[in-house]
Automatic annotation (TrEMBL):
Its EC number is 1.1.1.157. This is 3-hydroxybutyryl-CoA dehydrogenase. The keyword Oxidoreductase applies. It comes from Sphaerisporangium siamense. Coiled coil: none annotated. Residues 7-185 form the 3-hydroxyacyl-CoA dehydrogenase NAD binding domain. The lineage of its organism: Bacteria, Bacillati, Actinomycetota, Actinomycetes, Streptosporangiales. It comes from the Bacteria. GO terms for biological process: fatty acid beta-oxidation. Belongs to the 3-hydroxyacyl-CoA dehydrogenase family. Residues 188-281 form the 3-hydroxyacyl-CoA dehydrogenase C-terminal domain. The keyword Plastid does not apply. It is an enzyme of class 1 (oxidoreductase). Pathway: Lipid metabolism; butanoate metabolism.
Length: 293
């Protein structure tokens, strides 16, 4: 019999984690959202408030529905509040040492039958699972940015994933209104493996002076039917995340298409991370985009 999920935990309430918490709450699940300190918790709460507020202003949600979503999320600084969760998903920074430490703690705190999931973009789910005494119940559950909008979830199955676990998580993704695909534990899974090579290549074309930033963005929107051009998308994903994923993909594949373009590294070093910092390849002015000076 497939398991049911009523209470979930989300650890890390950055752009992805807050979006994932909202997705669960929208589907009627109770959510405990965990962050390291009060400031990070407030940022996470603000994210969900803004996102659901936008849905209200667009007439997609009424105020009572918004309040119900917010009421289903408990914001907490303590992992102990995850002890009743049926599933916990982690969306903390992409540093394996942090993930290892967190999964060791989650393994101790959470019910033995609970599923532990990681939203990692590129790190090894098998290595994360190995930090626990329950590797059979550790999977990848990879959402896409913006999580409330993008319809896909990659469910990552490892060689030690227990029977039925990936299927149950895929069922949960469907309940969230998403379409799951099951993928093996290889760096970048499917989407990032294909997408980041393309985005990195766009940065290389810019450096080579083949076309301007705006013309490359326009070309891919109007010529290939992508909803955003590559520089707008790099800014949405975050240049730090994009750079990090390219690095990991390059280390694993040794394919030059993933060797991070120098301009990507340069912008990250300068703190120009995309939408989240207000400027990346584009300047972002309250969500819109304009040309940099
Ligand atoms: N949070 C919540 N909702 C959002 C949102 C956000 N950040 N951004 C947009 N939306 C909602 C809007 O409210 C709107 O909803 P409505 O139709 O109910 O009013 C809907 O999405 C469409 O938004 P807009 O009309 O403002 O804008 P667009 O039609 O241009 O769509 C987009 C915006 C959905 C971001 C679209 O441009 C798109 O699909 N871009 C590509 C995004 C993509 O490829 N993401 C994957 C990145 S890879 C990744 O995340 C993996 C990671 O590991 C790196």
């Amino acid at each position: 019999m497939s398991r049911t999920f009523e209470t979930v935990g989300v650890v890390g309430l950055g752009t992805m984690g807050a979006g994932i918490a909202e997705v669960f709450a929208r589907a009627g699940l109770r959510v405990a959202g965990v962050e390291v300190d009060a400031q990070a918790l407030e940022r996470g709460r603000g994210h969900v408030e803004r996102s659901t507020g936008r849905a209200v202003s667009r007439g997609r949600l009424d105020e009572a529905g918004r309040q119900a979503i917010l009421d289903r999320i408990t914001f907490t600084g303590s992992l102990d509040d995850l002890r009743d969760a049926d599933l916990v998903i982690e969306a903390i920074p992409e540093v394996m040492d942090y993930k290892h430490a967190l999964f060791t703690d989650l393994d101790r705190v959470c019910r033995p039958d609970a599923i532990l999931a990681t939203n990692t973009s590129s790190l090894s789910v098998t290595a994360v699972a190995a930090a626990t005494e329950r590797p059979g119940r550790v999977v990848g559950m990879h959402f896409f940015n913006p999580a409330p909008v993008m319809k896909l979830v990659e469910v990552v199955r490892t060689v030690v994933t227990g029977e039925g676990v990936a299927e149950d998580v895929a069922g949960l993704a469907r309940r969230l209104g998403k379409t799951p695909v099951t993928v093996g534990d290889r760096a970048g899974f499917v989407v990032n493996r294909l997408l980041l090579g393309y985005l990195n290549h766009a940065a290389t074309l810019l450096e080579l002076g083949v076309a301007t930033r705006d013309d490359i963005d326009t070309a891919m929107r109007l010529g290939a039917g992508f909803p955003m051009g590559p520089f707008a998308l790099l800014d949405l994903i975050g240049l730090d995340v994009s750079h990090e994923v390219c690095e990991v993909l390059f280390q694993e594949s040794r394919d030059r298409v993933h060797a991070p373009a120098p301009i990507l590294r340069e912008l990250v070093t300068a703190g120009l991370l995309g939408r989240k910092s207000g400027r990346g390849f584009h300047v972002h002015d309250g969500g819109g985009e304009s040309a940099p000076e």
